[in-house]
Amino acid sequence: MSYLLSLSLSGLSPGKSQAVLVTLDGNNWVETSQERLREGRNVPPASRSASVRPMKPPTLFSEEEIADQVAILAAEIDEAYADADQLVLIGVLKGSFIFLADLARKLTIPHRVEFIAVSSYGAKESDVADSVRLLMDVRHPIVGEHVLLVEDIVDTGHTLAYLKRLLEARNPASLKTATMLHKPDRTEEEVDIDFLGFTIPDVWVVGYGLDYAERYRTLPYIGELPPEMR
């Protein structure tokens, strides 16, 4: 993708402007001067550059597939808590925020939303169980409440196990878990998942709340991130 811009640059005579071609090469903007344009020495097309990477990860689950699965999960949760006065949804930040929002809007039972945050992956998930630490706690007590802990993905199981221990110590009436994705091949600590969207192989996924080094989080679908995009 290229854009031809006419810019006023320092060092030029008053009223003069310089034509500059700005080309998107992979994730980088490359500037080409008017002189290079006259000589035909443009930036090589993206298709001829070995370093160019695709702009979007390939789709693993489409928007439609995600929406259908969220609707199924919401119906299952409505049925499971049909006799409860209220359900407390606790979303684990940052990854679950899109899933939690979509799920909460599909529920018909009375519910309220809380958030909790723990140490995050950064560019790589920690494999050490005791490295999980609490960054932000829920705002209100959950004693005697029916609680549903909402995660984006269960990988090694360390984070979910830590949060279950933390919340169970506060004496809720019940505590269940919901996650959009589960990687059973990566399990190091067994933990029950009561409501599950999709089971996936051991691949890096992004989008729909999931990120890689804070990128790709707001993609509307779930994609598989190939090694060349990391």
Walkthrough of the structure:
The protein is an alpha/beta fold and 230 residues long. It has 2 domains: 2-48, no CATH class; 59-229, Rossmann fold, CATH 3.40.50.2020. It has 4 helices and 12 strands. The chain has a 6-stranded mixed β-sheet with strand order 7-6-5-8-9-10, with helices on both faces. α2 packs across α3 (97-106). It is globular and about 50 Å long.
**How many domains, in number, for the residues?**
2
Mean pLDDT, to the nearest integer, reads: 82
- CATH fold assignment of the largest domain: Rossmann fold
Shape: globular
Rg over alpha carbons = 24 Å
Query: Which spans have pLDDT < 50 for at least 5 consecutive residues?
Result: 1-13, 16-41, 43-51, 121-127
Task: Estimate the helix proportion, in percent.
Answer: 10-25%
Strand content: 25-35%
**Alpha-beta content class:** alpha/beta
Q: Any descriptors?
A:
230 residues, alpha/beta, Rossmann fold, six-stranded mixed β-sheet, 4 helices, 19% helix, globular, disordered N terminus
Brief rundown of the structure:
The chain has 230 residues and is α/β, with parallel strands linked by helices.
Describe the SSE topology.
Blueprint: E1 2-7, E2 18-25, E3 28-32, H1 34-38, E4 59-61, H2 63-80, E5 87-93, H3 97-106, E6 111-118, E7 134-136, E8 146-154, H4 158-168, E9 174-182, E10 195-199, E11 205-206, E12 222-224
Parallel strand pairs: 5-6, 5-8, 8-9, 9-10
Antiparallel strand pairs: 1-2, 2-3, 4-12, 6-7, 11-12
